[in-house]
Amino acid sequence: MTDYPKPSLTVDAVVLAGLGPRMKLLVIERAKPPFQGRFALPGGFVDPYELPPNAVVRELIEETGLQLKPRQAVPLTLRTREGRDPRGWTLSQPFLFHLPQPLPVKGGDDAVRAEWVPLSDLSSPAFDHGAILCEALGKFWPEMPMYDPRLADIPVYGRGPLGDHLTFFGGSFNPWHQGHEACLALCPRKEGLVVVPDSNPFKKGEAGQCSWRLFRELVERAEHFGALVFPGFCGMEGANPTIAWLPYVKARTKGFLIGEDSFTSFPGWNESITLAQALNHLYVAPRRVTSDQFEAARDWFKAHAPSLQIHFLDDHHHRDVSSTALRKQQASKA
Fold it and tell me: Residue 207: its pLDDT value, please?
């Protein structure tokens, strides 16, 4: 025995059924605090020395009556963030399951009821289960490096047709504003345009937001510009530099849509030369930067990525709108 503090270990099950827009999620209504009466993913505490894949299928049987097998479980990222569970230091190992269609379920144990909810109707689930669900949906995107081949050829909620030429527009989008919409409207390549919301652990306020609600809101806004929204990075607990994923995207050509502020800071990004050389197109929307900053960045790209095609977009009325400033305004009103 030691005196070292020890966390509790839990498991959560993301059980999806069906295809595309009709995809549904298995949820339970919690019978006990915390989040009593709220929808949540089925799951619970792991018994001593129990393997997590065995624990998650046991919890599914106890809370929903659904019998699955450990070999069907696709592991997701271990969740460890402080404050994710009001009961204390709790780690969760989530697992993803996919079924061709919903099967009969019935609430039991800590669940008042169990039911299949269309993803299009799902509001904010309890705990950080919205973030877990977003990561699970990202596993179905074959273009992205987190794709799991066991989910091949399964059309997933929120994902439409994508070609071989992809353009990514990344950011925390906390909050989304008219400047973001102007960037999408100005981007000349609409086919294969993908918004990539990404949590930033260094920005205050993001840990408390529901990642699922953010994703749903962005889907509604992006569709007006013919863009799709990749959910897989919503609610990540750690830093996720662009170099960690963009070079590994499977596409014939890769583009990146950024503002001039990001254009001028790009040389300081993690492994910036490797990242620039992995891109075919860079679309740069106007922001408020100095001419010296702009020229220095352009010279850097010419020196380190001479084959990269850089497209400077037209000016727009929302170039000065800032998510950081908007967050400060919201905080001052709270």
Answer: 53
